Amino acid sequence: MIMQRRVMVSAAVVALLAVSSCAAPTPQLDAEEKAAIQTLIERAIDRRNHQVVVGFSSTTEEISQDFVPDAVERTELEYGKLRQRRDALAPQNVFLTASASEITLKELTATKSGARVELSEQTHLEHSPISGVQGPDEGYVYGQKVDLAKTEDGWKIISIAPLNPVKPFPTTVIDPSTF
């Protein structure tokens, strides 16, 4: 009796392993899709970082180009907080006049419904002169993870979050726990 149960359990395990090994393979991304994902993420990070630059603001339509509908409102809130941060420095005559970012994809994993990217962002922020003296520029390197969805309009961002949340956050990053 016990031997029969072991044989039946063993047969069930073998059958389950056989079925799971026949499952659809993890999707692979071709070079064109990888390039599209990199371009999308670079544009979204540049847009986020530009929120701290004097005179820059993004519209809902611009944000919708890069983010899934469920993420647009949260992204608008984040951008608003960045502009508040920028505006709070204005009375002290501290202004950021430019931002430039480069990203390096560290890991890109395709899933059945989208993709996950781990990346390193290197950002340079330029300050305006204060009382005729050029202030020091600011720069940082920051690890992030990005979840993406494949939509009928192409790739869209679901979320961007720190890889290893460490406070204080860089100038152009709002603490994700505030949302």
Describe what you observe in this structure:
38% of the residues lie in helices and 31% in strands. It has 179 residues and is α+β, with helices and mostly antiparallel strands. The chain has a four-stranded antiparallel sheet, covered by helices on one side. The protein has helices spanning 2-21, 31-50, 60-66, 69-89; strands spanning 96-110, 114-127, 129-130, 133-134, 138-151, 154-162. The mean pLDDT is 86. The longest helix has 21 residues, at 69-89. The chain is built from four helices and six strands; from the N terminus they run H-H-H-H-E-E-E-E-E-E. It is elongated and about 60 Å long. A hairpin with a 2-residue loop joins strand 3 and strand 4 (133-134).
